[in-house]
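Weekly sync, protein design subgroup
Attendees: M.S., D.O., the rotation student, P.L. (late)

Item 1: inverse folding check
M.S. brought a backbone from last month's batch and wanted to see whether the design step gives back something sensible before we order anything. D.O. pointed out we never logged the input encoding, so this time it goes straight into the notes. Structure tokens as presented (107 positions):
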């Protein structure tokens, strides 16, 4: 499996990296937190880290550390606008339950 981005998410990342003037892609990870146990961590990456799994989708590189990959393998990252809110949406097939606020999940 892999980590993928929708075309909309890839365009958003490419535009942000261009405005930022540096960066090689996106870093996706998970950390322990919240009421359901895990939360996504999303950062712009300036370089790859040794041991990272690297995926490319619509021209954007996505870096994932091995510990996080277990929880997010197969995830599709989308960028959506819903009403006045906009942001990244994680379509993770491994999620068994999520908290009511949407900040954390478990597998």
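Designed sequence read out in the meeting:
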């Amino acid at each position: 499996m892999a980590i993928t981005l929708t075309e909309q998410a890839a365009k958003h990342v490419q535009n942000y990296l261009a405005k930022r003037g540096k960066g090689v892609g996106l870093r996706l990870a998970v950390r322990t937190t919240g009421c359901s146990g895990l939360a996504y961590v999303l950062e712009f990456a300036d370089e790859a880290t040794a041991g990272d799994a690297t995926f490319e989708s619509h021209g954007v590189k996505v870096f994932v550390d091995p510990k996080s990959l277990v929880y997010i393998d197969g995830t599709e990252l989308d960028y959506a606008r819903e009403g006045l809110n906009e942001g990244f949406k994680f379509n993770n097939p491994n999620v068994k339950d999520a908290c009511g606020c949407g900040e954390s999940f478990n597998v």
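Discussion: The chain has a mean pLDDT of 87. The two ends are 16 Å apart (CA to CA).
Action: P.L. to compare against the previous round before Friday.
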